[in-house]
Fold this sequence. Notes:
20% helix
Amino acid sequence: MACGKSVLVWAFAFSLCLGVSQCYYTIPLKIYPGKFNSSSDLDLTPLQRIQTSGGNVLSLASDPAGIVNFLDMVNNLQGDSGRGYYMEMSIGTPGQKLNILVDTGSSNFAVAAAPHPFITHYFNTELSSTYQSAGRTVAVRYTQGNWEGELGIDRVSIPNGPNGTITINIAAILSSEGFFLPGVNWQGILGLAYPILARPDSSVEPFFNSMVRQMGIPDVFSLQMCGAGLSASSTADPAGGSLIMGGAEPTLYRGSMWYTPLKEEWYYQVEVLKLEVGDQNLNLDCREYNMDKAIVDSGTTLLRLPVNVFNAVVEAITHTSLIQDFSSGFWTGTKLACWMKGESPWRFFPKLSIYLRATNTSQSFRITILPQLYIQPITDVDGTLDCFRFGVSSSANGLVIGATVMEGFYVVFDRAQRRVGFAPSNCAVNGGAALSEIAGPFSAADVAADCAGGVLKEPLLWLISYALMGVCALVLIILLLLLVLPCRRRDHSGEITDESSLVRHRIK
């Protein structure tokens, strides 16, 4: 009887623990989204407001104080998708000029503070009379590369940015691996995402948050990246672009601005509803597109897709394109495809379209890139061949709308209203033809109400789940011992038989 009761208790506990552990996978856990908007406290009345055709309002340049002049910021970026887009900044007192990579996928402002074989100069903290060490170490790991250094505080100004100087957190990079690369012309990184991604913790206020708080500019910035269709290894002058801080410059885009709401304020996480190759819908569950997360990240070179989505895209392109028996190495990024010089390969490939949820959540809009954006020129061979790479790759950590797509659009990061805007960029043109398109609205009635629901975003949630499962395992072990001890029976020879040990057989 005692043994039977123990079995019942054990079975109940096992079911309870199993249910708790399964809750980790089925309950849509939420994390604090990090609402760090300062714009709600700003007086925006001096700003001119322009109505867009979509009914959305965006603050544009008309600042009597002279802090924001968007035309002064046009063409303040250099670079391309292969080498990154960067801008010049003046750091410390007296100012030391460095080129800083623009990255919407991280939140630390970090600069080289020691010599490195791949950079020409670095920020010497000892030469700045205003630099103050915070006495804290910091380390950041990216999809590719990592660095370590110390936190400090100093003054920064942007020659082609808002007027004035601000005091910001700086990570002085003292060592790195795979971060600074041969051929790049930048010596630091400007993380433009939210505080929750800052390292070592969210108390390190990111650069743009400091700018909004100290300068009183609107909590909006926008990006134009003009490397569409240009060789990533060209020795010519970099293509460049514009980072507009404080709003959007309407002369940099064509047509209407379309907005998609932010899902969470950490990365710039959006919601992808479906993908099309040519006119062919991939017909995947929309949760496949948002597996882990879907973000807009200027620091990522390619369009990165979850493995299942990537495989479906490659299969659809293979069936749609006019190329037979194409090398698998081209799709995986291990091989280039070459054509005779002057022969355009783009006519062989279809358009790629991404549907994003609109601010009216029952609708969506479509951003489309032509093959010139994802079949990317890399180099020539002996002056007779032009070689190209596939500007799409598979991803183990979410869908990333990187430079492959962003080069086709003027992208507005409207943090004040928790949304990201897209409009065709006026520099995404080749031979007079636009390389990007946008259309909508379309009904979103055929997709789930929340394609990104239930996705876990922070390692902390994994730790909590493992801790719960660990507690369950401990309880199970105790109950198993209580179950085994009263039920142990000796055989006729007085020895304990193997069959009496449930633990032994469960371990098997």
